[in-house]
User: What shape does this take?
Amino acid sequence: KSGRRPLIAGNWKMNGLRSSVPVVEAIRDGLSPELTSRIDVLVCPPSTLISSCVAAVYGSAIAIGGQNLHAKASGAFTGSISAEMLADLGATYVIVGHSERRAYHHETDDGVHAKALGARRAGLCGIICVGETQEEREEGRTLDIVRAQLAIGVPKGAKASDTVIAYEPVWAIGTGLTPTPADIAEVHASLREMLGQLIGAEAAKVRILYGGSVKPGNARELMAVENVDGALVGGASLVASDFLGIAAAY
Ligand code: PEP
Assistant: This one.
């Protein structure tokens, strides 16, 4: 009804060795053509597995993405990976500003903005993550926080084809806790409104995912919330049957 094609995205984080590639093969084999005619499915493995995962999903409807990037295209940045390098491997998406990057690698909203520009430069779709901490929620600052993260992070001229937003409350990631559907609806509506201020009519086309403890058992309820256009899934994306169960919410 929204006209936006749902996206179910998996974030493997720092999990998976070459022996984990069969997980993406099982996801590939478990998705019906009927489902993939209606939704997009993305797996973001660690960088070390991008090539093998791209090969594993070749010819299928699954997209492969990175979990992070350096904003610059190349240079003396030991250990970093650019959007061009991810694209070169066959990745088509990249997660930008995940809360774990913000918390453990001191990523700022300005840094997120630069990385989102880097993703666009290389033709990748950037999944820009926003979300409040437990403390910020308790202080009633949730909307202020996520709107500011969006306002700084989203580059001018962002389009639905190069930008996805993920609302991920920090306190809901990996904890088994989730906001209520009403809380999610409030945040997503506010993000959509803020996007409208930033990019105008294009805002209606941009997908806004919910992330944080999405499981097969709660996916249907969470994905039914207005303005929720899919999920960013951490833990449950490591188990093919769980990830497929979440995709089946559509
Ligand atoms: C995430 O890391 O993006 C995430 C949502 O994790 P989990 O699903 O494990 O809460």
User: Anything to note?
Assistant: The first helix runs from residue 21 to 30. Residues 6 and 58 are 21 Å apart (CA to CA).
